[in-house]
Amino acid sequence: MTLPTPITLSPIEARVLATLMEKARTVPDSYPLSLNTLMLGCNQKSTRDPLMNLTEAEIATALDTLMPMNLVRESSGSRVARYEHNFQRGVGVPEQSAVLLGLLMLRGPQTAGELRLNAERWYRFADISSVEGFLEELQDRSEAKGGPLTVKLPRAHGAREQRWAHLLCGPVDMEAAMAGNAGPSAGSANVAALTERVAHLESELAQLQQTVRALCAELGVSQPGQT
Q: What predicted TM-score, i.e. pTM, was given to this entire model?
């Protein structure tokens, strides 16, 4: 019996794939995404770790790699090429696991508590223990299914909780991961949550403005507020 080949993505491929996964859940009305909209999502300055400044050419190359892997599909019926993810089926994981892997690809290592908070607009987990259950299931994934997809990082000095990382880009650089493993203090939790919500609203507003500009250009009309 031939075992499935483990998925190994480049950081750019992981960013492109996870951005498609995010936008499918957070802005379904503008999904699937055009290449330009996908680039804007990949290069967001909020809810991204690390920050990237990818070009359309780099994203197109990543898409050309992801499509034969059955992780991304090009949708039909549009004058402009649009793309959607096929992560859940392509990897063979349930929705909850796909959500956690998408967040880890977008934001880097996180605790189970941080993942539950950040997943609110993707999927509402009942509690932190359910998040941990899916993470442990991904960590214990058998070689027959392609091997582990997450790893629990060692507890950093002074940190109350351990963080989790994904393995879709290969083994984790433990030194680099531990260097950024200082979780937020309890007193900053509310501020972090508010900052997160504002960042989401700003991101959605930027995408809506981009959509309006594109539609006005196609129709040959002035943008609202312009003469």
A: 0.78
